[in-house]
Amino acid sequence: MQAIVFDIKRYAVHDGPGIRTSIFFKGCPLRCVWCHNPESYKAGIESICSSNRMGDVKVADETEIGKTYSLDQLISEIENDQLFFDESGGGVTFSGGEPLMQIDFLEAILKACKEREIHTALDTTAYATKDKMDRIIDYVDLFLFDLKHMIAEDHIAHTGVSNKLILENLKYLAEKGKKIIIRFPMIPGFNDSEENINMMLDFLNQLPKKLEFHILPYHRTGQDKFRRFGIENNMPNIPSLMEEDTKWVQAIFRESGYKVSVGG
Ligand code: SF4
Asked: Which residue's CA is minimally distant from atom 7 of ligand 1?
């Protein structure tokens, strides 16, 4: 059994508690227009011809995106950082793309981490069947749950898929008492309307307990990748958001009793 991974980030501090090793799985069922990792879209390893300018000269470069890992290889990558996990209360975060797209491998590596008492977080779109959720639910210590838009038509328009499964999974995980941090990528003109924010609050208020709410302000870092990797880019040319631009959303959630954080 092998996984296709497009990046491994060590010493990550925004992907769960403590110091973490974040593993980025290739393949994503969504196509968010603001995506920071468009090279994760396709499930397989791919060769992308990127071009960069050096002064007036255009330099073409062939980049291979994705690398295969066996279970033993990936566990050994994770175990290399055990000391940092132990000292900081950290662990491993599986991210992407969408790790649930490689469910067999994900299930196996989560179990292997649990056997080694390594803290596990899953950064997920939750665009997956309940069946898949059930396979991993007992081996994930923390869900970093992306919540992008509450209005189904807008969710489809900006990500390519409906939010129905996502909202069902959020309710399901919350009712099971799982530890969840909501991650809201705040994208100007896409999901930062008062209507959407209030709908999100109403939905979260119906869950059994108040979840942590983490705002990820839009930043343009992914935009250059679309050009470099020759992927169609439908994101308008808008500036990054500052922390202060998110203050009104922070206030709404805090006033309703949520623990709110920003950035990352
Ligand atoms: S879910 Fe994440 S990786 Fe997938 S398209 Fe959206 S932003 Fe990109």
From this structure: 35
For the chain, the domains span 2-262
Tell me how far the alpha carbon of residue 218 lies from the centroid of ligand 1, in angstroms.
Answer: 13
* E strand residue ranges, the chain: 2-12, 20-25, 46-54, 57-65, 67-70, 91-95, 119-124, 142-146, 180-186, 212-217, 260-262
C-alpha to C-alpha distance for 146 and 174, rounded to whole angstroms: 14
Rounded distance from Cα 44 to ligand 1 centre (Å): 16
Confidence at residue 4, expressed as pLDDT on a 0 to 100 scale: 98
Q: Is the CB of 4 under 6 A from ligand 1?
A: no
Burial of 106 (0-12, 13-18, 19+ CB in 10 A): buried
Average pLDDT over residues 130-134: 97
More confident residue, 130 or 220: 130
pLDDT digit string, tens, across residues 24-61: 999 999 999 999 999 999 999 998 776 666 667 776 77
pLDDT interval class at 183 (50, 70, 90): very high
Assign domain 2-262 one CATH number from 3.30.300.130, 3.40.228.10, 3.40.50.300, 3.20.20.70: 3.20.20.70
